[in-house]
Amino acid sequence: ECILEPLSLPESPGGVAAVESSPYVPCIFCKECYLLAEQNQLLKHMIIEHKLVIADVKLVADFRRYILYWKKRFAEQPITDFCSVIRTNSEAPLEEQDNYFLLCDVLPEDRLLREQLQQKRLREILEQQQRERYDISFHSTCMFCDQEFTGNRSVLLNHMAREHAFNIGLPDNIVNCYEFLAVLQEKLDNLQCLYCEKVFRDKNTLKDHMRKKQHRRINAKNKEYDKFYIINYLEFGKSWEEVQSEDDRELLDNLEEDWSDWEEHPVCAVCLFCEQQADTTEKLYLHMQKSHGFDFPKIKSEHGLNFYQQVKLVNFIRREIHHCRCYNCQEKFQSKGGLISHMEETEHITFLPARSTWDQPQYYFPTYENDTLLCTLSDSEDLITEDQSEDIPVVSEDISNLKALKQSSVLNQLLYEENKSQERF
C-alpha cells in the first residue's frame, strides 16, 4: 500500500472561469471583424475608417479584451470623453482638415485597464508554468538525435543542453514548452539555422553550419521567442532586455517599500474528506464540521496538538482516505464515497484513533505535494495550560551540605588570591 508516485490534490475549479478566447476581434466602432492574428489589419482599418489611433499596442497584454472593453465604453459615452484629438493639416482649409483620436495610457482608465490585463495574463502564465513544472505526462523527441523522452520536460531540455550543447534556458524559466519546441522543430524542418536564421540546401549542411559556427542556440533578439520566457511577463511594459539592464543599485535609493500592488493568492485548501475547496481555513473548517461532522479546531484544542502534530494528523488522514480505509476500524472500501458514507454513519469520522497510530515520524511527509492546508496550520495560543505547566520538572538545589560546598568552591581560591595580592601593595 505504499504510495510510489507524487500525488496532487485537484486544481481549483472554483476560481474565476477563464473567458473563452475567440479567434475574431471586432472593430470598436462597426461590425467588421478580424482574426486575432490579423491584429495589424484591424488597427489599420480603425485608423483609416474611424480615425482612431491606439498607442503602444505592443504593451496591451490581451488585445481582444482590450478592444471589447473600449467598444462597450464608446457605446456609452462619446469618444471625446476618452481620447485626445489630433488635428492634421491645421493650416489648410477646414474641409481639408482631419481629426484623429488618440487612445493611450495617459488616460487613467486606459492605464488601469492595461495594468489589470497584464496582471491577469501574469496569473494565467504562472498557473500554466506551474502545471508544466509538475507534468509527468510530457512526451517529445530530441531535435538532434531523435531520442524519445517521457516524464518531465526537464529531462529533454537537460539532455539537449548536456549532449548537444543546445541550451534554451532553465526549464523552470520556460512556459508553453510544447509550443516552443514545435516552433524550433519547424525551423529545423525548413532547414533554417536557429541562430542566424539562414536557410540551407540540405539537413547535413545545416548541421555542419550550426556545429562549426556554434549556432546551436536561439537568437535572443528574435521577439518570436519572448512569449516562451517567464521574465517577459513579470513587469508591465518591459522586455527581458530592459529588466536585465536595470541597475539593482537604483533600488537601494528607494528605501520605502511599496506593497500597494501586492495581491494575495487565495488559499484554495481542500477538504480532508471530499474535493470541496475554500479560500480560507475558517470556511474549510466550517464545511468539514457541517458536512462531515469533523471539528478540526475542537480536536486540536482537546488533544492539545502543536503544529507538528497537526501536520502528522492531516497527512495521516489524507493517506487513509487515499487508501479508502476507515482510520478508526480499518475497514477498506471500493470507493471514496462508500468510505465517507460509512464513516459518517458510524461517526468514525468524528473521533481520532489512538495517538500512537498517527503521531509517527512517517507522517511528517505530505501525502499530497500541493496540500495547501498544511501551510495554514498554526499553534493554538491556549495550548499551554496550568496543568501542562505543572508537568515541567523543577530540580531543587541540594543545600544539605552547604558548608562543605562553600569550602570546596572555586570562588574561595579566587578570593584568597585577590586578598593576597592586595596585601603586597
TrEMBL record:
UniProt domain C2H2-type: residue ranges: 191-220
Ranges that cross the membrane: none
InterPro entries linked: ZN622/Rei1/Reh1_Znf-C2H2, ZNF277, Znf_C2H2_sf, Znf_C2H2_type
UniProtKB keywords: Metal-binding, Zinc, Zinc-finger
SMART domains the UniProt entry points to: ZnF_C2H2
Gene Ontology molecular functions: zinc ion binding
Positions in coiled-coil regions: none
Record carries keyword Iron: no
One Pfam family matching this protein: zf-C2H2_2
Family: Belongs to the ZNF277 family.
Protein name, entry field: C2H2-type domain-containing protein
Species of origin: Spheniscus mendiculus
